[in-house]
């Protein structure tokens, strides 16, 4: 923040002042300023010039990054081919020592991560990376001399340390040469070389298996790939530029254009100063921890698959030769998925989180199938390995030091995950490795939850930034460039914009806040109804699938809990959404009555479907059908519009209106509230009302009691009609339709009540539309609820026809709905 302030003081508040900026101070901060010839004039770049520079960067830089990334993956994974061709026997590896060879590599990777990133900031990044490439090629060659665990482990440790810089280096180079919108596709291209390496490695390993030589076959992967790496390291050292200002294959004008293209990201080019304030900012950023958790959960499966893929395929019953070839489709699937995801992320705004969730769902499905398919179905188990790796991660932050901390921590998490992954595949469990695949499934599910949380946080942050910068003119692009050159972080940059660079809009906020369930409804008031519905629905579907695949009672119980948590969002938000749409209390009352009637009837269909399907197809099919219905519904969920007025007003304001300068300070503070205070206010407000408002507490306790009895009926009805009356599960499901019928019959009761009660009690017409007018419905529903329970209990006897207790479901459903509609309408949801 100090930098942002000093930048404003130096350059003034007008665009003209920015154009007259003295670049000397900025040149001392960021190397990108040296190419601008002392001015930030002429920021506009012609589209044909821009395309020409981008084409040159893609032609010269992208193939270098892609080929290098392919080589590094071959180098670290060729040990799996060596293991297939006899290394484990010749090196006398026993028990889990092979797993430890994979783990030790990532231990070295983790140790070298932060020091190497600091070297990248202090020295020429491309030259430093080139030296490391040559060195790790030499280490790979030395592995041919390893004849025991100690020798191989030492070489793998140093290989990990030296390879630790390549991924962070490429992330930084991509950020230095490409705009944000261009980065996902380019990152996907060079990252997809992991898949290409799988294909090439499989072909080479297949050829090695057919060699007839006095030298053991397992040494050839190290010789071939190590020699190639050393030669390529010298090429990389000579031809790779560290930033656009050093790209010899660009003319002077093209270097200027390349620099300006990236500076408009407001992230700068390269800065050699390490700033502790950016370290603190990174550590206090919730995204820092979420990204690292996501990376950890992502790389646990990655570490296992990269080390054990050929052995896993071999364990399916395929020969060693075929195992090397059958890993190739997995690489092709990675390339295809990454290129498609990268293209979509570059072409369509705001879909990166959904791409990640989509890839994770596919990977989760693959993990579950490979875990559950029988040994006899070896082709099916093989095909599932091709979809395990379909995930994508892309993130960008501003500030060179903050970028270094994010990148270093990210790859430390990458190492920790890869350390853990191989240790979950126990030699004694070969070839199925149940513990390993169960862990992979859990990691994929955890990633889906983390990405959903990241989506909510990032969506709010983007709205805040859009509001602050909605009306920044083209004249103020110079301010953005100078902020990037000043090495201001993404948070600091917003503070650095002064009064003349944006105006402040004041929007009206409704004073009456709705009271809803403890999590989803309050969160929807901060982030919008649409966001919560779209974020929770995929998780509901995911855990429904997990229920269908649960191997035992314990995980099934956990998955059912999570299914209920995420599936409750639409029920929690439904009354609030209807209250947003219908302003007239009568219309609102009818809409809530219909909504609750359908909500009550829905749970009755489940016992019918499961009652007829489970005996014939097995209980898992009940969840598969629910998943199919959820998948079909998701198409409509994506079209769900925003209905909450404050969110709509903010969106309208950011697009059309201007900010009020008189409210600058007040609105700036409001938009910069830390997420902790927001979550505290949003999530603690319902608890505060619950413990301080007697009416809220009474209604909540009453509803909780009614709900517990309502869902208890799902256990009571099957017990009564199967044990006492010996009905089949399907017939028992049909019996429960009477409860749904009672819920639906609440609608005509509500219609009669709405018209008769005002006349009977002589309520003035002015009060007919008040909320309290609906409360007496609970006085009707409560007794019906109790009467139906006594009716059901007293008539459930073998000598009494089953139709008598069955009919008790009608007043049971009517009583429950009457209570629910009355209290929901009283609180206005």
UniProtKB/TrEMBL annotation:
In residue numbers, the region (Disordered) covers 1-20
Q: Which UniProt keywords apply?
A: Membrane, Transmembrane, Transmembrane helix, Transport
Query: Cross-referenced Pfam families, in alphabetical order?
Result: MFS_1
Which residue windows does the record flag with biased composition (Polar residues)? 1-13
The UniProt entry lists the main location of this chain as membrane
Question: Which GO cellular component terms are attached?
Answer: membrane
From the Swiss-Prot or TrEMBL record, state where the protein is found: Membrane
Keyword Transmembrane (UniProt): yes
Domain of life per record:
Eukaryota
Q: Which residues cross the membrane?
A: 60-86, 98-120, 132-151, 157-177, 189-208, 220-239, 288-313, 325-345, 354-373, 379-398, 405-425, 437-457, 531-551, 557-578, 590-609, 621-641, 687-714, 734-753, 773-794, 806-826
- What InterPro entries does the database record attribute to this sequence? MFS, MFS_dom, MFS_trans_sf
Indicate how the chain sits in the lipid bilayer: Multi-pass membrane protein
List, for all copies, the residue spans of the domain called Major facilitator superfamily (MFS) profile: 438-829
| Annotated GO MF terms | transmembrane transporter activity
Q: In which family does this protein belong, per the annotation? A: Belongs to the major facilitator superfamily. Allantoate permease family.
Would you tell me the protein name for this molecule?
Answer: Major facilitator superfamily (MFS) profile domain-containing protein
Source organism (scientific name): Penicillium brasilianum
